[in-house]
Amino acid sequence: MHKAIYLLTGLAAGAATGAVSGILYAPNKGSRTRKKLMRKTQKMTHEISDSVHHKLDEIESQVKNLKHKVEKEIKDTTDHLKRAVRHTNNVGKKVAAH
Questions:
Q1: Cα angle 33-39-43, degrees, rounded to a multiple of 5
Q2: Digit-coded pLDDT (tens) for 50-66
Q3: What is the rounded distance in angstroms from the CA atom of residue 91 to the CA atom of residue 93?
Q4: Taking a C-beta distance cutoff of 8 angstroms, is the pair 8, 48 a contact?
Q5: Deepest in the core among 1, 5, 24, 33, taking most CB within 10 A?
Q6: What's the pTM value of the predicted model, to 2 decimals?
Q7: Which of 3, 14, 20, 5 is closest to 43 using CA atoms?
Q8: For the chain, which residues make up each domain, given as ranges?
Q9: Cβ-contact 20, 41 below 8 angstroms
Q10: Side-chain half-sphere of 67: how many Cα atoms within 13 Å?
């Protein structure tokens, strides 16, 4: 999760640096530079959005996997406890019978 935040921060910083550099060193007239900058901004926004969605999909998958493991562990523990209770009851009945 922290890696995703660092990645997004780096992308945003890189985009800002690139935008400022592009404006300062642009050989084209202002309107053309603004259009070019707008296209690049839209492209970066799309890339960041894709990256965020990808990370969210990964997190969702990890959560589902963890949920499955926890549910299995709960079931296994419950089954073990039920067997222990049955065994204890059987021992108790045998002791009471003597």
A1: 140
A2: 888 998 999 999 999 99
A3: 5
A4: yes
A5: 33
A6: 0.54
A7: 14
A8: 2-97
A9: no
A10: 6
